[in-house]
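Quick sanity check, Na+/H+ antiporter subunit E:
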Amino acid sequence: MSPELRTRRDGSVRPARYRSLQWPVLIWLTLVWMALWRSFNWGNALLGLAVAVLVCLVFPLPPLRMRLVPRPLGLAWLLLKFAWDVVVSSFQVAAVVLRPRRQLRNAVVQVDLTTPSDFVLTVVAEMTSLIPGSIVVEARRSTHTLFLHVLNVRSTADVEKFRRAVLAQEQRVLRAFRNAPPSTETEEAHR
């Protein structure tokens, strides 16, 4: 059988491009369409759904196979610590910028994440970029490595401190979500 064809449960075959029609993606794209047009009525919803289907067929994405279950306490701690880091870093960046005649030293810091999860790589990169004073310059999916531009790095101790902070952020993300065991039905649907 051609790799572009996919067998359904009833034995019929359909092209592989139809796998890209995932309901969560279609609903999200439809809502984005409606928000862009600022019109939340049935006609605009149907037009948005048609555009979403067209986009998913023309630009297919791989299927989402995340079986993550949030842990309420871990997620609450992740969000609370993130909010605290944003506030503290905002004051630190303001203090650095407002100091007169101080030469800033910036650095690009490489952080090798410990987990091979693309989800964790993405969340850690986004959350770290949202904290003032650092931004992701590059994320290498193949090695799960982040390269971050960091403001006001004076020594190698500062580099190590920042690297430890990113790895701690990764651990908080891991504690906030756990992998759900795969169900037989879900595994069969992805084959």
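Posting the structure with no commentary besides this: The radius of gyration is 22 Å.
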